[in-house]
Amino acid sequence: MVNKERIIQEFLQLVQVDSESGAERQLADLLKEKLTDLGLAVDEDEAGNFIEVGRRTGNLIATLPANGGAGPLLLLSAHMDTVKPGRGVRPRRANGIIASAGDTVLGSDDKAGITAILECLRVIQEEKIAHGGIQVVFTIAEEIGLVGAKNLDYSRIKARLGFVLDSGGPPGEIIIKAPTQYSFTATVKGKAAHAGIAPEQGINAIVVAAHAIAGMRVGRIDRDTTANIGLLNSGVATNIVPEQAVVQGEARSIDPVKAEEQIQHMVDEFNKAAAKFGATAEVEVVKEYDAFNLSPDALPVRIARQAAEKLGLKPLLGQTGGGSDANIFNGRGIVCANLGIGMSKVHTTEEFISEENLVTNAQLMVEIVKTAQQTKE
């Protein structure tokens, strides 16, 4: 059975290892040691070459061979990086809750997921639980665009189904729907002029951008779809009509058609505003990731539901407006559910997680491995 104090102490150790996106080297080296000690063969790929910040750290890919189990090879995954401010985390443990000291994030996103996977590996080794093989992937740079998963060396991944531990819902929640996301950068070009002497000779790029944004549907579009304008950079001085404005934003939807329609609507508004004022608009659109939409009868969903029920948890099939490595894995043909691990107020200095959730996460992962031996495809 899982060891509560071991789980908590390992989590406390992990969150105190700095691993902001692009700076995962120290954590990766520690996890290599832990995985090797657990009997897994560990490799590191070249995904770190695809990011422009920090030391070059790749994804960790570790394999535990089958020990006679009849079940499928499973992929278990969590990401190593944290958002900022994530340096010098000082965890505080009180009344069954673990939080940061208040000046950094805690890093339960996603070190709670890593902790659950490590404890699961220990328990199945200690109790000699039969399994059909396990591949563990700890990714880099998830928080800055799923970079690790996008550049994972998939030639080393043999598992065709798995579980990503990276949702804020309670243990027992199974995310089966997640959105397609597009990002855009719009460069609006007007004409510079002296703002006090000859403003009529200029074309104000900020005004053009403002008109474009005012014509857009943004925020919550419908149950499945959202859009946002996140950044606007322009101007050099108050006495110069700004020649250029750069706007960055996004659109996402559970429904890929709606996502495409929304991003095209935003592009159209920039073009309309530019034409109205005699400016130009160059809009670069990037599809960040594709949606996934798993059937309630998909194998990883059935395994997770049955495992949760065996622990007395109420399985909840949900959807999220956020992307995760599960989006990328599903797009590469690895059928993955994203599991709730009970982290709260992530990406803030008020982030916390309960000790109970840390323990339940590990119990659920052990039960998932057991259940996979008994579930038919």
UniProtKB/TrEMBL annotation:
Cofactor note as given: Binds 2 divalent metal cations per subunit.
Keywords, ordered alphabetically: Hydrolase, Metal-binding, Metalloprotease, Protease, Zinc
Highest taxon of source: Bacteria
This protein's record includes keyword Glycosyltransferase: no
Binding site for Zn(2+) 1: D109, D166
Gene3D superfamilies: 3.30.70.360, Zn peptidases (3.40.630.10)
InterPro entries found in the cross-reference section: ArgE/DapE_CS (IPR001261), Bact_exopeptidase_dim_dom (IPR036264), PepT-like (IPR010162), Peptidase_M20 (IPR002933), Peptidase_M20_dimer (IPR011650), Peptidase_M42 (IPR008007)
Cofactors: a divalent metal cation; Zn(2+)
Any GO BP: proteolysis
Catalytic-site annotation from UniProt: E142 (proton acceptor)
Short name of any one Pfam family annotated for the protein: Peptidase_M20
Record PROSITE patterns: ARGE_DAPE_CPG2_1 (PS00758)
Peptidase M20 dimerisation domain: residues covered: 183-276
Name used for this protein in its record: Peptidase M20 dimerisation domain-containing protein
Source species of the chain: Desulforamulus hydrothermalis Lam5 = DSM 18033
Taxonomic placement: Bacteria, Bacillati, Bacillota, Clostridia, Eubacteriales
